[in-house]
Amino acid sequence: MANDKQATDTPGSSDGPCPMNEGRMRVGYYAVCFLDVLGQKERLKRWPAQEKTTPEEEQVVKDTIDCVLRYRRRFEELFKELDLIRTPESVMQQWPPGMKDAFYRLQDASIVTQQFSDTFVAFADLLNGSGDKSPAALSRMIGVCAMLIAEALAEGVPIRGSITVGVGVDLPHGNPGNFYGPALEEVYGLSERHAQYPRVIVSEMVRRFLSQRSGFSHDASLDVAFGRVAASTQGFLTCADDGLQMVDVFGSEARSIYQDDAYADDVFQRASGFVDAEYTKHYRADNMRLAGRYYRLKTYMDARRHLWEPQSSKLDQEEQ
């Protein structure tokens, strides 16, 4: 990956003026996340076929739209909040100015989201405002996915998706927030072909990027720090039963984000209850395809249940 953005002129069209010719677009390397809010297609089938709607039909429309928008907004909120969850503002205020400046440069990352029906995409330029090829946006994106998938399952909403790193462009000239490029095609394909059940698959390019330990910044000390961020982010990933890399939604690193043990336990218990119920429902309906997928998720969660138990419960078990 190059450590500089590439600016290219957009080719013109012989058929007439193209709005993209009015300026230059910046092609770069992006972290891209594709998330599909499952269960909405059945709701869409119940949408009214005519313009005139009954109050009941209007509620169906509202529920479908609100569900997807709610998780898109929650993704954006968590992306902004995640750093402060892991490094409280009260702690940062005690740091000397130089240390705070370096910290903010390490954490410099922003995302843009866009929505397509019952899916949404979040993307972030890997180059930060200082020209560093930073892993911060990708790291935060992975952490957010861990929290979002867990919270959604606890609310009875399954979400699946994928994350990749690749080439693309945020379209300019009245089209902000519209991402285009090979990275979008790859992340969509990963989700459609491999996600299968509520989880987030990560591409080989993500694994390679996080395996780097240098080459992030021209500042030697920050380059080392970025390498450590990349290394720590690998703890959020795990190898699934089918050999694919995925976000470890209920792993130890994901659990460490939660400061409130009671809340974490509640999220896990409600999510586990939903997954168990879905497995049972599909099994009894003889839908072995969906039953098998929820069984895989159930098995994964059961193996990590001990990580989410309150500390008091663990101490009681040890005493017994």
Keywords:
320 residues, Alpha-Beta Plaits, seven-stranded mixed beta sheet, two-stranded antiparallel ribbon, 13 helices, disordered N terminus
Describe the structure.
The chain is α+β, with helices and mostly antiparallel strands. It has two domains: 24-257, Alpha-Beta Plaits, CATH 3.30.70.1230; 260-320. It is 52% helix and 17% strand. The chain contains 13 helices and nine strands. Strands 1, 2, 3, 4, 5, 6 and 7 form a seven-stranded mixed beta sheet that branches. Strands 8-9 form a two-stranded antiparallel ribbon. Helix 5 (136-154) packs parallel to helix 8 and helix 5 (136-154) packs across helix 10. The longest helix has 32 residues, at 55-86. The N and C termini lie far apart (55 Å). Mean pLDDT is 83; it is low at 1-14.
